[in-house]
Amino acid sequence: MQLTPDQLATIDRHLRKENWLLNEDLIAELTDHYTTAISNRMTEGQAFSESLIDVYKGFGWRKGLLKMEEEYGIQKKRQTILMAWREVKPFFVGQRTPITVAIFAGLYQLDSLYAGRDMAKSFFSTGETFLIIGFCTSFFIIIIWELWQSRANGENWFSFAGRKVTPFVRIYSICYAVLLCSKFVWIIFSWSLPAVLAQFVGLSLQTSTAVYFVGSTIALYKRLSPKVKAA
To answer: 133: Cβ–Cβ under 8 A, 6 or more apart, which residues?
Structure first.
């Protein structure tokens, strides 16, 4: 039995307002599950309200749904990290290794032209600026694009955009964390190691950070583009 728009709205209100769920991906999955389960029960003669309560009870009431959202969020974060790592790994061990070598060589040439420590400072400062500006610009573009797409598809904007914005924010956050960790490690070792070794450590950290940025960008492109299937 197909549910009416009012019944679907009741399910949406039940998940969002009555049970305080926020994760759009989980809400979309639960909505599908609720719709199917309630439709089957109504086909057997059960009322909509009773069917809703039965399905709700099966999930463990509000406590069960909130716990599911917490576990779902943890799982999605892990998937995001693995998604990015699948694109980054070939730069270190795989077919993209020559690109890593080229990046290291290019940074070495720049480091030879400028003072080593000044070069590293410039790299990390530029990286932070790039991430902040890139994040704001990309975030704005994605929001506008998804708003247009949601209107074209007649779908709720928050549900439609949430599935794209969430992994975008997560990967950018990881990139920024990688940049800060690399910068922190470089600051510690640059003053305590011999000049040659400090230079090598600095270049290695800069190369790793740049490679992670590139790999994450590829992962984001595959995740956000409907025409590209992620590996």
So the answer is: none
